[in-house]
Predict the structure.
Amino acid sequence: MRPIQTLSALVIFVTLFLIFFYSSLHLETTDSLSAGPEDLLKDPSLQVHDRDVKTQPSKQERFTFPPPVVLNVSVSDGLREAIPQNEAYWNRLLYSALRNRDKGENPFGHDSDWSLCRQTNQDHLQTNVHDFTSYPVSIQDFLQGMNCRSPPVLFNQPNKCISAAGKEDNQTFLLFAIKSSPRNFERRQAVRETWGQEVVYQDGLKVHTVFLLGSSPLEDPDLSSLLSFEARHFGDLLQWDFHESFFNLTLKMNMFLQWTVQYCPKASFVFSGDDDVFVNTPTLLRYLQSLEPLKASRLYAGQVISKASPLRAPTNKYYIPLSFYDGPYPAYAGGGGFIISGALLQRLYSASHVIPFFPIDDVYVGMCFKALGISPEPNTDFRTFDIMKQDRENLCVNKKLILIHRRSPQQMKKLWSGIHNPSLTC
Ligand SMILES: *[C@@H]1O[C@H](CO)[C@@H](O)[C@H](O)[C@H]1NC(C)=O
Ligand SMILES: *[C@@H]1O[C@H](CO)[C@@H](O)[C@H](O)[C@H]1NC(C)=O
């Protein structure tokens, strides 16, 4: 009898151990899934001022998602027709990326390790761009970093689109992704108090908001402890460790696409825009709800700029040297604010792995959509170039529009309460 008793004791012990082990595992996952917005992924080295943050990283490391998959999207003939094959550097890069991809190789044929990508590109540029040294410094800088696509994450919001109650991530109707910069706190706050409020609108439409930030230049005052507070308090900051600059906006767009594919893939629509635009959220939601299902699943809408070409005056903010890019721009939606169907995010992100980075972010998005064979849908209620001066104070004009660029934080608050005033009759 003895061996049997020992055996049963052993079986009971092992069973109890397994039950305990699995229940603790289960606790761990539910714990991380239901963690609030304050559960941020942060670079511990940055949080030197912040005591309670230091205790968090071990928990965050456990909370990892698989990296987004890059699909092998087919590139439309429209892209090849729109962008000529010629001697300009970017044009050559594009066609070589397309050839590499057709051969089943990595389109850019290099390793994009964040710490190495700038140096490896240096020699390549000197030999391939004959007048490289005559380019403005900012464009030289862009070219050196144009293969760098994996900046370290400073603030993440992995639970943004996961509802605490149902653990369903398919409840976000509209995600606002707003390009901001560390110092623009007042603008972010105005957006939070007005059009970017995270509320449930009529018909149960849920809106979520994230602000996309790079890092301040080293010469600037250090705002990191304040940002860290802001990220925890509002749970809406995404920040990556690359310098905030005009020519890094394409990188910012790419990081945002990667984030959304990973953490908010079920959002029905995504808005990409600036922190100084005014958005009439109820009007925008009505427009999105009114779309035919087919259009709703293939939407790229905004103020469309068609038949544009690079500006060639070296002093212009949008200057593009002829030896860098030669050709017109495909039609694109103005970067002040446009809408994309959530259903297109994965393909758009994948297209950005074939199309080399272009210095102007909204033109770049237009190129990626062209590659997918999708044309931008013009909507005259998106006014990225503002409206006529005499209409700016007219609430009835404002109430009908979807987006207006640009408005100060004070004007945003005034407009928002004005168009929501029940006694307003138009
Ligand atoms: C989300 O998905 C769940 C499970 O697939 C489904 O029951 C629910 O109705 C969906 N919710 C919405 C808002 O689509
Ligand atoms: C973009 O960010 C990187 C990383 O911080 C920086 O080295 C580079 O100078 C920035 N590029 C531009 C064009 O500002």
Observations:
- Residues 138, 141-142, 145, 242-243, 245, 247-248 surround 2-acetamido-2-deoxy-beta-D-glucopyranose (ligand 2) (CB under 6 Å).
- The mean pLDDT is 87.
- Residues 262 and 415 are 35 Å apart (CA to CA).
